[in-house]
Predict the structure.
Amino acid sequence: MHPTSPIVLITGASAGFGQATARLLAAQGCHLILGARRVEKVQALADELAQAHGVRVFAGQVDTRDTASVNAFVEAGVKALGGLNVVVANAGLASGLHKLWEIPDEDLEAMLRTNVEGVVKTLRATLPHVRQSGWGHIFFIGSTAGHQTYEGGGVYCASKHGIKAMAHALRLELCGEPIRVTSIDPGMAETEFALVRLKDADKAKSLYQGLEALTANDVAECIRWSLALPEHINIDEMIVKCRDQASHTMAKVNRRSV
Ligand code: NDP
Ligand code: 8X3
């Protein structure tokens, strides 16, 4: 049975899609369990949303690469709010734009440990609670990079192709249970993503110059809509790009002169 005020756990809630999703779902009356490494940002968001919308919000520090950290975060959040219905396994990143034969271990490990292992660890810790609640929805955050590849993006694309595989597998594994599985797969969206990847504010900004990229709120809206649908409807995957991006990579992007 679809609860009127579901309890939603979001990883990567200190910025970008995670933060925007927390804002949008709190405004719909959802209770939230929010985590990221920058716990002070998550705590400030939690305080703001609890005050503005009268919902219950738990804020915790979590590094999704670390099993003990994920387990402790999930247990504390579920204990504080008394259950869990929806998971948004959003924490992720791209690190660098190296060709496959040049990628440093640091970037390789950051992407695979966060985008693949971190998502598995999040799912592993949360699913028993979602099952116990009797109704649930698991959101993966994939990417157009899970549908195409580009030079310098081999490992990031591999990690997002991995998300696609995991979402498909989980849907098969949970078939017959009252739990939906959705992968939201955005194209270019202006968040902290490019800054984290390129470590250069000017280069990050120039990526979106002259085009109207997706915002974090646009992606949050896709999550809100998928969640609000009647419960027999499952959005398997949603590829969402801005109108200025015609290809899954940046090969065909419309830029107005500035
Ligand atoms: P942001 O950089 O704005 O946000 C990323 C979030 O992930 C931050 O809250 C960050 O928090 C968190 N995070 C990163 N590593 C960890 C970790 N080890 N443990 C816990 N939290 C972590 O990027 P976006 O919002 O754009 O990205 C969110 C997801 O969307 C990612 O999976 C990304 O791959 C995907 N995506 C992004 C697109 C884009 O163009 N922006 C397009 C398609 C997909 P903190 O640093 O505080 O830990
Ligand atoms: C982010 C989109 O094109 O930078 O997942 O890989 S892209």
Notes: DSSP finds eight helices and seven strands in the chain.
